[in-house]
Every structure is written in structure tokens, then in C-alpha cells.
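Q: I have 551 residues here and want to know how they pack in 3D. Can you give me a structure?
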Amino acid sequence: MVIDYLDRSSAVDFDVDVCIVGAGPAGISIARTFIGTSARVCVVESGGLRNEESIQKLYEGTSIGFPQLDPATCRMRAFGGSTNVWGGGCIPLDTLEMEPRDWVPHSGWPVSYRELEPHYQRARALCGVESHEFMAGSFLTHPARAPVEFDARALVYHVFVLSAVLFGEAYRSELEQAANITLLLHANLLELEASSAGSTVRQACITSLDGRKGTVRARQYVLACGGIENARLLLLSNSAVPQGLGNQHDLVGRYFMDHPSGKLGTISTDIPDGLTRPYDRSGGKGRVPAFPELCLSGEAARENHMLSARVRPVAVEGTLPRGIRALRDLRSRLHPAGRDENISLDGCMSAPEACSSAVGDEQEKFATLAMRVMAGTGDIAGAFMRKLADKPTVKTEHIDLIGYFEQAPNPHSRITLGSECDVLGQRKVCVDWQLTSLDWHTYRTAGALFGAELARACRGQFHPEPWLQVGSDQAPALRGTAHHMGTTRMADNPQDGVVDRDCKVHGVDNLYVVGSSVFPTSSWAFPTFTIVAMSVRLADHLRGLLEMAGL
């Protein structure tokens, strides 16, 4: 059942068994496991069924660390969460990345890969990749294009598969039709109101943007709002405990991690295609949706005391032939931003009347472009032949090496509450993203190692970026990848983390947190597949608790 909290005719207060705050992949995965059971479940979602600017603004905040990170533009506040815009990459964590590493402070998960493996099995179905077998750190499906072999002591490749599942679209109907599930849209959590000692959540206080207020009372509560917002909501739940729920050791919001990414350098070579094509995701269209990721080997990570890392060799086109340039200009004119890019160029040219509204007053420019395309048929034919030979349509000038890295857990990298408030009167988030010396050591060492090995494989030469040089005064070209992790980290000891191995908040009887915010370490891997696995694991635990209570 779906209820829009903006609808004044709907109920204000709700009494259920499980209250899940957040309808992204984590919240949806948990809710689905309760369909058809006797448990009453309410999923509280701040957004609607699609992105809305007024709702998205509730993510606004400040960034005071380095690199900078805009908290408003790297998340999606709507039913389905960030899977509305995700790339679909699925891959399990590697065993090494879950174990304690003596060179990585604060590393190690309280649960092992073996414990998580059966939940990865179930996550495959939720992500629509159940036909693909896997092992620790990789799927076993062979990529459409075989990658170049490297020295396995230095570099290895792991395989990820692309999911086509958008959780909001895929599972909306099931939740709408489930009699025991209430999906509450446009309902914003203000606070998890707790007992005087902060040991039990009594109710979730909710509101809509138009000021409608109410509560959700439940036996168990789950925060499933992402790596930034989970921490923010715990800190905002401070009427009974001034420092916020689960924050008795000042750990809520600390250890914030993302996957830093940046260009490591370039490779010049006369034979680039064999190196770049296996990592070109266009190879999955109509073919096997499995792709290799070129990774640092576990042996190299141990020997060099590095964090995990991967690199993508990206082909950079040379001079664009006139015919190809004309064709691309024509395509961009026919399909400007916001249009359906699946409309074929041939379809528009064979039915010009269907395109007349798009061309409008620019008919003359359109005709000129069409003539340029006709004059460049030789270039276009050559590009077509290259494509048939599984080569880039335009020859590669050089290769850019783009690195993606695990971030070291760092208690000084954190999420706090800022001084400004949003339209609901809630303090906005402040992001202080900070890197450590281990991060910088990893970037420099990985750049040299990846660059040398890839250049050797294609008989080329590696040219590192200046910012990787020790003592360089050039600003590092780093950015985040919107994979927010670690702010409510999992640990057996309350002095080391916010939640225990079952994702229950230490010191709070009936409050759980799920999602990448509980990750103790980040690996380099795309996090959604692990988020879903952890979510179905938590759902099993919650169902067990309710069964013991007679439900």
C-alpha cells in the first residue's frame, strides 16, 4: 500500500512492527522480505516516486575538507534512492579487504566473507544478476573481450557485472500490492525519539514539507538512508541524549569514506586498442554484461603496504575526421540534452517531418550539416569498418589512466551538523572529508606500478601526472564517486564502532542501521551489491526477533 503523506485525507500516525526509514536499495530489500508475513512494516521515504527539486534541497550542506564534496548533488532523495541513477556495477568484496591488515589502521570487519557469502547469493536475484556465479572479489563470468595478461604478482583483473535493475521501478508494484507493507512517501524523519536513557526508540517523528506532523510507532526501527544521512539522523535524534543516539563514544559521523578518483597519467603507444578495449563498457551492449577491472594484486598491496586500487585505461581520441565530426554534430542537433538517445539517426532522416519541431528555425544549419555528412561518407565508412573489427571508431591518440581507490579509515574524516538549518528546521550536514598519508602513499605507488606495467604490456611509455610527485605544488586532481561509507561503522566493541555485527546500534535495544555507512573499510568495489547482501542479512535477523515475539 502506498500513502502520500502530503495527502491530508491519509492517517497521521502509524503503529507497526518494523519502521524502515529510507526506500533506497537497502530499505526496499528489507521490506520485500516481509511481504506476505504477519509483520506490519512501514517504509518512510522523504521523496516521491521521482526526483523533486524541493525534496532534493533537503540534502544541502557544507564541505570544509579536502577534497571538496557537495552533499546535495551526489545523492538521490526519491523512492529507489540512488539506484535511480546508478551505473549498475555489482561485485562482491574480496576476503583481504574484510580482514584486519596491520598496515591499515582501523581495518577489519567483525563479519567474514564466508558469513556474508550466502547473502550475496540472494542479492544476485534482487540485482537481476542471478545467472552469474561469483567468488570472493569477483564474478566468474568471462568478459566479452579478454583483457591483456599482466604480471599476477602486481596486477590482476576482477570481473563485475552490470545490473539493469532500478529498484524503485522493479519493486514498486510488489510493495504497492502487499497488504502488510505501507510505503509512506513525502514523509521526512525529524527525530527518533528515545527513552530518557536513550536505550530504546519510542517513536519516529515525521513531517511533510507542508508542515503535516505525525509519528510511527514500531517494535524495531531501521535507518537505511545512506552513508551521510544515516549519521545526520542519529545526531539529530538528540532530545533524550544530547550527543545523539549511538554516539556515546563520539563515533557517529566519523570515518567518512568515499572512493577517491583521479587521473594518474597517460600512456603513449602505437598499439592502444588491445589495452583499452576490454575495459570499454560498450562491449556489453547485446553481449555479456560482464567487464574486467584492472586491480592491484593482494601480493602487491601487502608488499608495498597499500590500500586496494583499480585503474581504468581510457582511450582518448585523436584528430576527429571531418565526416565523423559532422555526423556527431548532426546527431547532437537531432538529439539535444533531455531527448531520448535511443531514437535512431536513420529514423529521423527517413522521416524528416517527425524531426521538424526539433529543428525549427535551424533548418538551414541542419541542411548544411547533412551536406557535411554526405561529403564525409569515406570517413564514416572507415569508422564503420573499424567498428566491425571491434576497434574504436576513431583512432586513439593516447591512453589516460584513471585510478579509483580504497580510502583509509580515518576518524578525522567525518560528518557533523552545521549551523544552518533546512526548511524543516533541521541542522544541515557538514562534510569534512580528509585523506591520510597512507592514501597519498597508495596514489603515488599505484601510479608508478600501474603505469609501468601497462606501458610494458603495450610497448608504450607512461607519463605520470605532476601532482603525484612528492613535493609537487600542483593541486591534486581528485574527486569523489558518491560512494559514501563508514559513518556508522560496524564493530564488536562499542568503543570502536556505532553498530554491532547485526547492525544494531550499540546501547539502543531496537534501532538498526544498514547501508554503506556500516562498512568498516571501503575496498575499491562498487558498494551496492554488498549493501543489498547486508540488508537481506539484517532482514533475516529482524524476522527472527519478531518470530520470537510471537509474530
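Q: Anything worth noting?
A: The longest strand covers residues 396-405. Confidence is low (pLDDT under 50) at residues 337-361.
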